[in-house]
Amino acid sequence: MDESGDVRNVEVAVVGAGQAGLSAGYFLRRAGFEPGSGFVVLDHSPGPGGAWQYRWPSLTYGKAHRVHDLPGLPLGDADPGLPSSEVVSAYFARYEDAFGLRVRRPVDVRAVREGLDGRLRVETDAGVWSPRALISATGTWDRPFLPYYPGQETFQGRQLHTAGYRGAAEFAGRHVVVVGGGTSAVQLLMELAEVARTTWVTRRPPVFRDAAFDEDWGRSVVARVEERVRRGLPPQSVVGATGLAATEAIRDARARGVLRPEPMFERITPHGVAWPDGRTLDADVIVWATGFRAALDHLAPLRLREPGGGVRIEGTRVVKDPRVHLIGYGPSASTIGANRAGRSAVREIRALLSGGADAAGIAPAREAATF
Ligand SMILES: Cc1cc2nc3c(=O)[nH]c(=O)nc-3n(C[C@H](O)[C@H](O)[C@H](O)COP(=O)(O)OP(=O)(O)OC[C@H]3O[C@@H](n4cnc5c(N)ncnc54)[C@H](O)[C@@H]3O)c2cc1C
């Protein structure tokens, strides 16, 4: 029970109001669920935008890979020079309004456990909800991943994860070691190299991909990540599956020697880093561009994890508990994948709640009429 003793019954609870959660909200409305009694969207961030509201200001809209429109309302033209955080947050705010999604925020979902009468129990800092099905769309931003290296705690300089990066200016004149082989590492190196000395270290030699990122290629990447989560393994990082896109800016930076990877160091010293061959390097700052993990802690009481460490899902449905869907997870962890996942989760949940009789899914003509 929450402080007021209330447990609010609802058909579906959506946790997270990023691209994935809003897409789910849209398809829930289209399927005839009403905000309030039919579904509730809970998000612990202060404003609209999902993780985009936290992206560093120098990640302008023009530099983002590609932000796909949410279903039913295009983002429209936006100034590529504006921070993505501003552009996407304003778009999501408009979207929530347009479809009356009534996102409840800030509401932190602390635990989801078995409830009464086959329902789930969603415990938050703003009370308890009791849904018949749950869509978890919590992304990864809340779980920055920091590997451990010996000596890390002795380092006298500054260490930060990309999640805490706000722009290159504060590193002017410093020597910065950037750790990680992903897109964030590459973007930060290109910015930092303008004002600082940089060293790039990666666990594996980065693979730059010159060919265009076309649809076939996209499908094959998604298939590979899908295969992993079907086997109950944690989803691989996107770059692990794709390689790095060699854009013109990246080609230019490589030609200027800005993107010259070194192998991973072995330990951290008070003043820098050291490699197994005895080589050392003094540094003022270590930036961990080492990615994120899926934010699934709130689901721990349901014991959904497999021995392989991941959650096995078929499409978006958790194999161990068909009331629970994960969207924006694994193969759907991109703005386009999140849209599709929202649609497919709602289709299955609708079938589940109507006793399986409605498995055919969403009929577009009827959905459109609900707005
Ligand atoms: C730096 C960076 C750049 C990227 N650029 C692109 C790009 O250009 N194109 C692209 O397609 N993808 C990009 N991605 C991937 C991107 O994160 C996804 O595509 C998409 O935005 C994720 O949407 P989401 O809804 O799954 O998660 P999020 O946007 O992370 O939303 C999750 C929401 O859940 C909330 N939440 C989390 N836990 C809880 C809880 N316990 N209780 C309540 N609320 C909770 C959070 O507050 C958040 O609002 C990028 C990722 C990063 C890190």
Question: Can you describe this structure?
Answer:
By secondary structure, this protein is α/β, with parallel strands linked by helices. The chain has two domains: 8-142 and 293-353, FAD/NAD(P)-binding domain; 152-207 and 243-288, FAD/NAD(P)-binding domain (3-Layer(bba) Sandwich). The protein contains eight helices and 18 strands. It has helices spanning 19-30, 84-98, 183-192, 215-230, 238-242, 248-255, 335-353, 364-369, and strands at 7-15, 39-42, 109-114, 120-124, 127-136, 158-161, 175-179, 197-202, 208-209, 244-245, 261-263, 267-269, 272-274, 280-282, 285-288, 313-314, 317-318, 321-326. The strands form four sheets. Strands 1, 2, 3, 4, 5, 16, 17 and 18 form an eight-stranded mixed sheet that branches. Strand 4 (120-124) and strand 5 (127-136) form a beta hairpin. The two termini are 35 Å apart. Residues 357-371 have low confidence and may be disordered.
**Proportion of helical residues:** 10-25%
- Any idea what the CATH superfamily of the largest domain is called? FAD/NAD(P)-binding domain
CATH class of the largest domain: Alpha Beta
Give the topology string: H per helix, E per strand: EHEHEEEEEHEEHHEHEEEEEEEEHH
| CATH architecture type of the largest domain | 3-Layer(bba) Sandwich
CATH topology of the largest domain: FAD/NAD(P)-binding domain
Strand content: 15-25%
Q: How many β-strand runs?
A: 18
The residue-averaged pLDDT reads 89
Name the overall outline: globular
What structural class do helix, strand and pairing data support? Answer: alpha/beta
Low-confidence spans:
357-371
